[in-house]
Design brief:
Layout: E1 5-6, E2 13-16, E3 35-41, E4 45-50, E5 53-61, E6 65-67, E7 70-75, E8 78-83, H1 87-108, H2 113-133, H3 138-159, H4 180-204, H5 218-224, E9 229-239, E10 245-254, E11 259-260, E12 265-269, E13 285-291, H6 293-296, E14 301-311, E15 325-329, E16 335-339, E17 353-363, H7 365-369, E18 379-386, H8 393-403, H9 409-412, E19 416-425, H10 428-434, H11 436-439, E20 445-447, E21 463-473, E22 485-492, E23 503-504, E24 515-516, E25 527-534, H12 538-541, E26 545-552, H13 557-562, E27 567-572, E28 585-593, H14 612-618, E29 624-625, E30 628-644, H15 651-657, H16 667-674, H17 679-684, H18 686-699, H19 707-722, H20 730-740, H21 746-759, H22 765-776, H23 778-796, H24 801-822, H25 830-839, H26 844-847, H27 853-865, H28 873-884, H29 892-910, H30 916-930, H31 939-959, H32 967-980, H33 983-991, H34 996-1015, H35 1024-1048, H36 1055-1070, H37 1081-1091, H38 1094-1107, H39 1121-1128, H40 1133-1139, H41 1141-1151, H42 1161-1166, H43 1176-1191, H44 1197-1213, H45 1218-1242, H46 1247-1263, H47 1267-1283, H48 1287-1299, H49 1323-1340, H50 1344-1361, ...
Parallel strand pairs: 13-20, 33-34
Antiparallel strand pairs: 1-3, 2-3, 2-6, 3-4, 4-5, 7-8, 9-13, 9-19, 10-11, 10-12, 10-14, 14-17, 15-16, 17-18, 18-19, 21-25, 21-30, 22-24, 22-26, 23-25, 26-27, 27-28, 28-30, 29-30, 31-32, 31-34, 32-37, 34-35, 35-36, 36-37, 38-39, 40-41
Helix pairs in contact: 1-2, 1-3, 2-3, 3-4, 4-32, 4-35, 15-16, 18-19, 21-23, 21-24, 22-25, 24-27, 25-28, 27-29, 28-29, 28-30, 29-30, 29-31, 30-32, 31-32, 31-34, 32-35, 34-35, 34-36, 35-36, 35-38, 36-38, 36-39, 38-40, 39-43, 41-43, 43-45, 44-45, 45-46, 46-47, 47-48, 48-49, 49-50, 50-51, 56-57, ...
């Protein structure tokens, strides 16, 4: 085969059997199981497509495809290939595909439904496989089909899919073949069915258990309504340890009435544990039949099993010889295998007794009622309980049932029955057909109900007598013990001969000749309660009697053989009056037998009384006969129940049945007596009674003597049968009339009598009741009449015309009499009239057999219409409904008579307030019948309904409430009418209106109804088929109505009608039910195949209507813009192309509309200046509605492009509107772009993208001046920020709204309103509210500077405009708080990151754009990168900062480039802070906020790289980025609008590096100067990096690279740069020196080696630099800043009362340090609040330091310390030697050195104060002296100082009698105590005027060597004790005091840091100084001796008092190093990170 040819139809469908993975150009990739449609074929290949993706076509090999039989179906969209499979299988296949996709989505979203869907799909696949095997029986196939459809319906409901409507067979209902009403009703039924299934599933907590079985099976529902049911029981096994053969008697037992319901099922069980009949193994089954509905509804029904032992009196050991297997022959001659040597169907051997063993029982009430499912495969265990020796079986059973408890395992010991149960419905024939596996295949025993079934059908002849041996009472006689009584029952004839084979123990065994009872041991009053059946032939029943003989059974076998009956009883079966024995209990007389006088066959006892009642009746006390003597003490109690259809126990009924033997004058009495007989007896003998009645009627055919009596009896019997109690006998009566009725002339008499009854005058209520009974019997009376007439015709053949007309006249006269009867209006006949209307339609099927259908129709219509108006309205509608459902209505000629009556009556009732339900029901039935194809022509019928009923129905729908239950059917009727209307009907109906206004009203009404129907469906959303059919009908109707509107209402113009039409049509197009894009692929294909795309067709109709409006279009502009826009946004290309031009037409309408109000189009034509000249209203409406609709999900890129192209083309062709039109098109296009971007991410979890799109939109709306839209998106953006806790950005967003407002009281326009403050009415109020909101948000975002700017503006308004000083004061207080926050609170410095989005895979607003992001709090590059990657998980990170090539930018992938950028201080802020000593806390804010320019650098090498010195070739590429807006702003990121890249040559790079190094060192000095709490580590690392780098070649590398003659010769232009670099080297020396001073004051003992090393390296570096580049002083600016800090501290000191004395200033200082603003001294933030400020710290330290020097000098000089006492201070005994206070105090002191002359001459004179930097640069430097002599001198000096402090501790400080008992100098390293105080790097000592210079020097040296921690509060107390004022001397402190002490380990130091300690008063400070562990504690508060206590090696800060200490903080984590960041960005200063510290070249000197 060389060419492609079409594939034959039989090969069009295939299934892929192997994966197709060919890489050819046209090859499809297929997977196993895919379904393909083969379009063309070649020799080895197919061309086609996969069902999964029909749009993609290709080729695939033939060998991979399995062809499946199929057929081609022609549809509206082309050919559909359908597999030749069962419709259910096809449906399951489609459902599995659809559910599979949904299930995957549910699994991905973690929806809880996925598990249920998985289970359903698994069951569907399993059941589908079973169905495809083709091995199922019809019964199983029917069950499986129902199970599959139920599962599908349940799953669709679970997933919210469309409801599938099915017919009675379970197939999907075709909407084309069903009427609207029928489809509606099927939807209702399916909905109810699914609701029940869901409720059942919820109750049972399962899915598969409730689907496919149980009450949801329609077949079972149908069967459950039948009156015959069966209960199937299969015995699987019986386990019981008895040791003898047993009989198992199973029956159903009523526990309420305490009697069995059914016959027994008998199983003979051998001692070997098997059935005696081996053929029954595995086949022990029984059907309990004849169960009625009342039986299934009984309260408690049990399945019981009596276990009777068959053997000796006592159980004896087994005899092996008896265990034989024999072959025997049953009575029927069949051979069966048996066990125990006995035949299975024969009675047990005579020598064996039947002894009670026990009972087993099980409650089966729920199984019978259907509450629990029955299954023949499931086994149930029925426990067995043995009875006691004295209890009978019945007593044992009652005791167990009454107890109601569950039998325990201990009681039954696993002994019992295993049975299976199944409830079946129907009679034996039906069950055999529906369950052949249960009934036909196996031999099933049948046990009938004890009594009649609910229905006794003719032919069901039954003659059974059930006898119950209840109990007996027997005297001992001559015996010493009670007898072991055995009763033997026989049936004997009048001669005493037993009748054989009439005793039936139960089903499963054959009949016996006699029945032997169970024997109870030594029981004189046995209670047997044994029931068995006696089946006597009817001809022998009259002469038979029951004979009971009583025998004593001895336990001795030999003696037992000689025992003879000791007594007998009997009872006759027929009574003397001819009736049978009554169904009741009978007490029989027991006659003692004398065998010597009585022969065995003697019948003399028949002359004796048999019952106790007869004995009383005869008056004989002791009747006797030869050999028989009555024993008055003995008795036998029996019960009988006769189930006979031939013999009766009623005398009156018997008289009727034997009427022929009676005289004629007795017949009236007999007939009268019949109506008094119990109804149950009558219906039992229904056939015989009816035969007797009609025989009596026909015996007097020439006279009417007995006609009325027989008629009354007939009415009585019909009334019985139609009564609810006996309604199940209706089939019996029907069968009798059809098959057994034979009175050929009865019709004449019946018609005459009936006519007389109808015409009779009713004067009393009794007469009215008689007439009512006659009317109720009309149906069966007419049945008898018609059948009699038919029999007459059949018997006599064709009769002459006169006879036939005689019958018709009789019948028509009767109908006329009925019509007259219906016209009566008296109340006595009201019920009879209603009965006539109710029952006469039931006779229509019979009457049609004997009368012309049109005559009958006319008569019935006349009867109905004869009823007076307002009388029996509901019944009239019911009668009409019955007539509609009759065969008459199926004939067109009859419909023509009946339908007008129906429609007229419906119209009357719909316009009234009542009987709406019945009217709607009738109309539904009418329209459903009219849609049928077998009812003939319906054109005139539809016209009748349309003309007289349609308008009324429409008006009723308008007026009725949507929640009314009748609205659904009523709409279905209306839709059905429109569906069946042809174009001819439409023309006639629209033309039949008398006036134009009537037509207008109709059209407005119907359009209103249609609009409501499509906008809000009256049907449930999942009724997809119903909704689609409704839409197709509405579309058809609107087409016809549109023509009428155009033709008749354009001129003159009716605006309301046109408006209604457009609204209705557009609502129709936009309804969700027609949006095919939202459907699944399968549903979309089905809808298109049946209905096409109805939106497109309606859209074309709308376009036509619009362009037919003419000059009236302006009436819809701009009102209809939104509706038309919504329609054009629908994703249907042809619809868009057809309707988008309408917008251009609207623009023209507005453009050429009159400019002035009141002008007309004629004015604009005469003068063009009168035209409006713009289309602003259209534009505004278009933009507003576009925003709402696109955000709601409408529109796409295709619409944007199509709108642009179509509108651009139209505008360019219009010369006048061209420019304005093109501008509008561009505006709409740009808006669409932004709206689509916004919508694409509006549901995304990425809020940042949502924010970006929101900003794009609000910027656009700001650009086009759409304030209301602008404010709307501002609020959305603000809400997004608040969701993300972006308080700063939210505040900036609110400020944009505030900028639109003015500080005025003018009313607020609608455009500026906001939902945040809906009640504000003026500009000022709203602006003030927005400002306050912004201030709160700025405060929460820690942007206090921004908040202050708003506060200032508000303050001006309060002060100058509104004069609201109350608010002004509150605002100023808040401003003070904000200022305080700026200085004192810590704020993180956010980092900024550059992110470049390369590639087309990103959203449009991100593609190939670069943004700068503001990081979150404490977010670093690694965390930021991870966050961005989470938002774009498919993106690839670029590892280099080089710009990408064009290929990457155009690729569909996503590429991310991220790096950190440094913010650049704005020029405004640089100028603002230039040459000003601004606090670092303030500058930090402006460095990272209000920035718009950012930079980052990329180092690279140019030229040949020098391996020894890379500085000479290292260049720097610097990129400066400028964002569109400042950060922070309304977003946390902004796009880069400008990027400037330049390069720095190596020497410029070096200069920049040095400048950054000096600048950072300066910042560190100032930071530590202003905030001593800062950690020392950054300063240490900085110093080490500078000095070590210099020693190891850092500066030398620069010198080698740039400070050579060769470099200057090669680069003469860099001469100035070289000089600049040398100057920077020289300027670095004083900075390093100042930094070393700060570092030395803070360093602890552990870091002393490092300090020494740094100082040594610095000395070498300084010598080297100063020798080459000269010596430089400190930067003047730095000096000014230091002086400003010192000045601020002094000012704070004086302002806080630090002048001396114990005045208010000192006390206020204490309060400020110890209390918060509320005065709470215990507030934890109070001290921190004040000490965090350098000014506050300085004010307290200067006072405390001066006082401390005085105390120390006095102590060393031996002066008394008593003058220090101050009661007001000592009560605050709290040690405040905390890290917070001491470091703040001692590190913030100014350095003051008095001259030696002034110190000795005038101690009180003040020395000159200089900054520490200046002190160092003017010679006051600390040198590192390596001389051993100097070291010894310092050690000696330290010892003296330690001694002085010990004396101080024992005298004035901390000792007994001390003024400062709480002051402990443990932190000074001179004592040990658990109440230790931390150390501090410096202390201030005040020189006293009474001390000499030597002591001053000594103290200064001692203080210089101290590393003590001093609390600001304690120092303040010391200051209060001295009132002299003296200059301060600031001395740097070192740790030489404890230099000889061994250092503690680092772990020990870390464990003692930041642990709280407390003094004895419970108040204490926090030991947190890093240097405390290098200083020994001293000054014990409890010892007065001048001896130092032992060092606190294990105490110190490790002890806490009172359990109040907090756990130490954890160590901070190591910094995260991002290698990529290092490679790309460089270190902190833009270059490579500093190298790690190298090991020293030589060992450190000893400490």
């Amino acid at each position: 085969m060389t060419q492609w040819i079409p594939t034959p139809e039989k090969d069009r469908l295939g299934v892929v059997t192997y994966n197709v993975q060919h890489d050819g150009e046209y090859c499809l990739k297929l997977e196993v199981g895919d379904t393909v449609h083969n379009l063309c074929q070649e020799e080895f290949w197919y061309f086609g497509y996969s069902v999964r993706n029909r749009a993609l076509k290709g080729i695939y090999p033939k060998s991979f495809i399995h062809i499946q039989p199929s057929f081609i179906e022609k549809t509206a969209i082309g050919e559909q290939v359908t597999a030749c499979q069962s419709p259910v299988v096809q449906e399951v296949t489609s459902v599995l595909r659809e559910w599979g996709q949904i299930g995957q989505e549910l699994y991905r979203t973690h929806d809880h439904k996925w598990r249920a869907v998985y289970l359903l799909m698994r069951d569907l696949m399993s059941n589908r496989s079973k169905m495809l095997t083709g091995t199922l029986t019809l019964d199983e196939l029917r069950e499986l089909t129902h199970a599959l459809t139920s599962q599908i319906d349940f799953g669709n409901n679970l997933l919210g899919l469309d409801m599938v409507v099915r017919d009675e067979l379970g197939s999907i209902l075709n909407p084309d073949s069903a009427s609207v009403v029928q489809l509606y009703r099927h939807h209702e039924q399916a909905s109810q069915r699914i609701k029940k299934a869901v409720a059942s599933s919820n109750n049972m907590n399962g899915i598969t258990n409730t689907i496919g079985m149980g009450p949801m099976n329609p077949t079972k529902i149908k069967l459950a309504n039948r009156h015959s049911h069966m209960f199937f029981v299969a015995v699987r096994n019986f386990v019981c340890r008895i040791g003898e053969d047993t009989e198992l008697l199973l029956c159903l037992y009523d526990a309420k009435e305490w009697k069995p319901l059914t016959e027994n099922y008998v199983l003979r069980w051998s001692r070997m544990g098997l059935s005696m009949d081996l053929d029954l193994l595995g086949n022990m089954r029984v059907l309990y039949t004849d169960l009625g509905s009342r039986d299934l509804a009984r309260e408690r029904v049990f399945l019981i099993c009596y276990v009777i032992r068959v053997g000796n009196m006592d159980i004896r050991p087994e005899d092996p010889r008896r265990q034989t297997t024999a072959m025997g022959s049953t009575a029927g001659g069949s051979s069966r295998r048996t066990i125990s040597g006995a035949l299975a169907n024969n009675s047990p051997p005579p020598e064996f007794l039947r002894r009670p063993c026990g009972v087993a029982y099980m409650d089966v009430t729920d199984y019978l009622s259907g509450r629990q499912e029955t299954d023949e495969e499931k086994q149930h265990f029925v426990p067995f309980i043995s009875c006691s020796e004295r209890d009978s079986l019945d007593v044992t059973l009652r005791r167990l049932i009454v107890s109601g408890r569950e039998i325990s395992h201990k009681e039954h010991k696993n002994q019992g029955l295993w049975v299976s149960l199944r409830l079946l419905h129907g009679d034996m024939k039906q069950v055999s057909e529906e369950h052949p596996a249960l009934v036909q295949v196996a031999q099933v025993a049948v046990s009938r109900k004890l009594g009649f079934p609910e229905i006794i059908l003719p032919g069901d002849v039954r003659h059974d007598l059930y006898l119950t041996l209840s109990s007996g009472e027997f005297s001992r006689g001559a015996k010493s013990a009670d007898k072991n009584v055995e009763v033997t029952v026989r049936v004997c004839n009048e001669k005493g001969v037993p009748i054989p084979g009439v005793m039936h123990l139960g089903s499963g065994v054959t009949a016996q000749d006699e029945y032997r009872s169970v024997v109870y041991y030594h029981e004189d009053k046995p209670r047997w309660s044994e029931t068995f059946k006696i089946a006597i032939p009817i001809d022998e029943f009259y002469r038979s009697h029951l004979k009971f003989t009583f025998k004593h059974r001895s336990s001795n076998e030999a003696k037992d053989r000689t025992e003879k009956p000791f007594a007998l009883s009997y009872v006759k079966l027929m009574q003397d009056n001819g009736t049978t024995l009554m169904d009741t209990q009978h007490e029989l007389l027991v006659y003692k037998v004398d065998h010597r006088k009585l022969d065995e066959n003697e019948t003399a006892y028949l002359g004796l009384p048999s019952t106790r009642a007869e004995l009383v009746e005869h008056g004989s006390s002791k009747p006797s006969a030869p050999g028989l003597t009555v024993n008055s003490k003995d008795s036998l109690l029996i019960g009988t129940c006769l189930c006979s259809t031939k013999l009766t126990q009623n005398v009156e009924l018997l008289g009727l049945l034997k009427y022929h033997s009676s005289q004629s004058q007795q017949l009236p009495a007999i007939l009268s007596a019949l109506m008094k007989v119990d109804g149950e007896e009558v219906v039992k003998f229904l056939q015989d009674v009816l035969d007797a009645l009609f025989n009596i009627l026909m015996l007097n055919s020439d006279s009417n003597i007995f006609d009325h009596s027989v008629f009354d009896c007939l009415v009585f019997i019909i009334g019985l049968v139609t009564d609810r109690k006996y309604e199940h006998f209706k089939p019996v009566l029907d069968v009798y009339i059809k098959d057994n009725f034979s009175a050929t002339l009865a019709y004449k008499k019946l018609l005459v009598v009936l006519n007389d009854c109808v015409q009779s005058t009713v004067m009393t209520k009794l007469q009215g009741d008689d007439l009512l009974r006659v009317m109720k019997a009309l149906q069966y009376l007419f049945k008898f009449v018609v059948r009699s007439r038919q029999l007459f015709v059949n018997l006599y053949g064709d009769v002459e015309e006169g006879a036939d007309s005689d019958f018709e006249s009789l019948l028509l006269n009767l109908f006329a009499s009925m019509s007259d009867f219906m016209r009566r209006s008296d109340g006595l006949v009201l019920l009879a009239q209603g009965a006539c209307l109710k029952y006469i339609p039931c006779a229509i099927p019979d009457l049609l057999l004997v009368i012309d259908d049109q005559q009958l129709s006319t008569s019935l219509a006349d009867i109905v219409t004869s009823v007076p108006a307002g009388r029996l309205n509901n019944q009239k509608m019911m009668t009409l409904n019955d007539i509609v459902h009759s065969q008459l209505f199926l004939k067109p000629e009859c419909r023509a008579i009946i339908l007008p009556v129906v429609v007229k009556r419906v119209k009357e009732l719909l316009t009234g307030p009542q009987e709406v339900e019945m009217s709607v029901t009738v109309m539904c039935d009418v329209m459903q019948i009219l849609y049928r194809k077998d009812v003939g022509a319906t054109h005139n019928d539809v016209a009748e309904v349309m003309a007289n009923g349609l308008r009324t129905i429409i008006q009723t729908i308008i007026s009725i409430d949507r929640e009314d239950p009748f609205v659904g059917p009523l709409v279905s009727v209306m839709l059905s009418i429109f569906r069946q209307m042809t174009p001819h009907h439409y023309r006639n109906y629209l033309g039949h209106f008398a006036t134009r206004s009537d037509l207008l009203d109709f059209l407005i009404e119907i359009l209103m109804v249609f609009k409501d129907l499509v906008a809000k469906h009256v049907y449930a959303p999942d009724w997809a088929q119903m909704i689609l059919l409704q839409n197709s009908i509405v579309l058809k109707a609107l087409r016809f109505f549109s023509h009428t509107i155009r033709d008749r209402f354009s001129n003159p113009y009716e605006g309301q009608l046109w408006n209604n039409y457009f609204f209705c049509a557009i609502t129709y197009v936009c309804q969700p039910a027609l949006q095919l894009e939202s459907f699944t692929q399968t549903k979309r294909r089905q809808v298109l195949a049946r209905y096409r795309d109805m939106r497109r067709e309606m859209g074309f109709e709308i376009r036509t209507m619009w362009f037919n409006l003419g000059q009236h279009k302006i009436n819809f502009v701009p009102a209809m813009v939104g509706q038309f826009l919504e329609m054009t946004l629908l994703p249907e290309t042809e619809l868009r192309r057809a309707t988008i031009p309408i917008f251009f037409d609207m623009m023209q309408c507005e453009f050429y509309s009159p400019r002035l109000q009141g002008e007309a189009y004629s004015d604009t034509k005469r003068d063009s200046s009168h035209i409006k000249g713009n289309f602003q209203e259209v534009e505004n409406k278009l933009i507003t509605q576009l925003d709402v609709l696109v955000e709601g999900g409408r529109g796409d890129e295709h619409y944007k492009d199509l709108f642009q192209s179509l509108m651009t083309e139209l505008c360019e062709k219009h010369s006048t509107m061209r420019d304005q039109g093109l501008k509008l098109v561009r505006t709409v296009t740009r808006l669409m772009e932004r709206l689509l971007e916004y919508r694409s991410i509006i549901t995304d979890e990425n809020r940042e993208n949502r924010m970006s799109c929101t900003v794009n939109l609000l910027n656009f709306y700001q650009e086009i001046s759409r304030k209301e839209m602008y404010i709307r998106y501002l609020n959305k953006l603000c809400d997004l920020h608040l969701e993300c806790d972006n308080f700063t950005e939210a505040a900036y967003t609110l400020q944009l709204h505030a900028q639109l407002l003015r500080w005025s009281d003018e009313p607020l326009p609608t455009l500026l309103l906001t939902s945040r403050h809906p009640h504000i009415t003026s500009h000022r109020q709203l602006k003030e509210a927005l400002y306050l909101d912004s201030i709160d948000l700025f405060d929460r975002g820690k942007m206090w500077e921004c908040a202050l700017s708003l506060c200032k503006e508000l303050a001006r308004q309060y002060e100058e405009e509104t004069f609201d000083y109350g608010r002004l004061g509150a605002l100023l207080n808040r401003m003070a708080t904000l200022y305080d926050h700026i200085i004192h609170q810590v704020r993180h410095e956010p980092e900024y990151f550059r992110v470049a989005f390369y590639g087309r895979g990103f959203p449009a607003f991100l593609q190939n754009k670069i943004f700068v992001f503001r990081g979150k709090e404490y977010e670093r590059l690694s965390e930021f990168s991870n966050r961005i990657m989470l938002q774009f998980p498919n993106a690839e990170t670029m590892n280099r900062l080089t710009p990408p090539d064009q290929e990457i930018m155009d690729s569909p992938q996503q590429y991310l480039q991220m790096n950190k950028v440094d913010p650049m201080l704005s020029a405004e802020d640089q100028e603002r802070f230039a040459s000003k000593p601004v606090s670092e806390q303030i500058l930090r804010f402006y460095r990272v906020n209000r920035v718009q320019r950012f930079s980052f650098s990329r180092p690279f090498h140019r030229g040949q790289r020098d391996s020894d010195n890379a500085f000479s070739t290292t260049w720097l590429e610097r990129t400066i980025l400028t964002t569109s807006h400042q950060l922070p702003g309304i977003l946390r990121w902004f796009p880069v609008v400008e990027s400037h890249v330049f390069e720095l040559n190596p020497i410029q790079f070096a200069i920049e590096t040095m400048e950054k190094s000096n600048k950072s060192l300066t910042e560190l000095i100032l930071s530590h100067r202003s905030d001593p709490k800062l950690t020392l580590h950054p300063l240490t690392m900085k110093l080490q990096g500078i000095v070590d780098a210099a020693v190891n070649g850092g500066i030398s590398n620069y010198e080698k690279a740039f400070f050579t003659d060769r470099y200057l010769l090669e680069h003469p232009e860099d001469a100035d740069s070289v000089s600049e670099l040398q100057e920077l080297f020289a300027l670095q020396i004083p900075l390093v020196e100042a930094a070393l001073v700060v570092h030395r004051s803070r360093v602890n003992q552990a870091l002393q080696p490092l300090q020494q090393r740094i100082e040594e390296c610095f000395q070498e570096m300084r010598v080297h630099i100063e020798s080459k580049y000269g010596r430089r002083d400190v930067d003047p600016q730095l000096e000014r800043q230091m002086e400003q800090l010192t000045r601020n501290q002094r000012q704070s000191t004086h302002s806080s009362g630090g002048g001396g004395g114990l005045g208010v200033g000192a006390y206020s200082l204490y309060n400020r340090l110890s209390t918060n603003s509320t005065g709470d001294a215990s507030h934890p933030d109070s001290v921190h609040h004040h000490l965090s400020s350098p000014a506050n710290l300085t004010s307290s330290v200067n006072i405390a330091a001066s006082r401390l020097s005085s105390v120390t000098l006095q102590s060393s000089g031996g002066s008394s310390g008593g003058s220090l006492h101050n009661p007001s201070i000592t009560r605050h005994q709290s040690s405040l030697f905390s890290r917070t206070s001491s470091q703040a105090v001692l590190s913030s002191l100014s350095f003051s050195l008095p001259s030696s002359s002034s110190s000795s001459a005038n101690p009180s004179s003040s020395g000159s104060s200089i900054s520490p930097v200046k002190m160092l640069t003017t010679g006051h430097r600390f040198r590192s002296n390596k001389s051993g002599t100097d070291k010894k001198l310092r050690d000696k000096e330290n010892k003296q100082h330690r001694d002085s402090f010990r004396r101080l501790s024992s005298s004035s400080i901390g000792g007994r009698g001390s003024h400062f008992p709480s002051l402990s100098l443990a932190g000074f390293g001179l004592g040990g105590s658990s109440n230790s105080v931390p150390s501090s790097p410096a202390v201030v000592v005040n020189s006293s005027g009474n001390s000499n210079s030597g002591s001053t020097s000594a103290l200064g040296s001692s203080a210089h060597s101290l590393d003590a921690s001093s609390s600001s509060e304690t120092v303040g107390q010391l200051a209060l004790s001295e009132s002299t004022s003296s200059p301060t001397v600031v001395i740097e402190l070192t740790q030489q005091l404890t230099a000889k002490r061994p250092l503690r380990s680092e772990a020990r130091r870390s464990s003692t840091v930041n642990r709280p300690s407390y003094n004895g008063d419970g108040l204490g400070g926090v030991c947190s100084s890093p240097s405390q562990n290098s200083v020994a504690s001293t000054l014990s508060s409890s010892s007065g001796e001048d001896l130092p206590p032992p060092l606190p090696a294990k105490q110190g800060c490790s002890t806490s008092v009172g359990g109040c200490g907090d756990a130490p903080p954890e160590k901070p984590p190591l910094p995260v190093v991002n290698l990529s960041e290092i490679k790309e960005v460089g270190g902190e200063n833009g270059g490579a990170p500093p190298p790690p510290p190298k090991k020293p070249a030589r060992p450190l000197p000893p400490i």
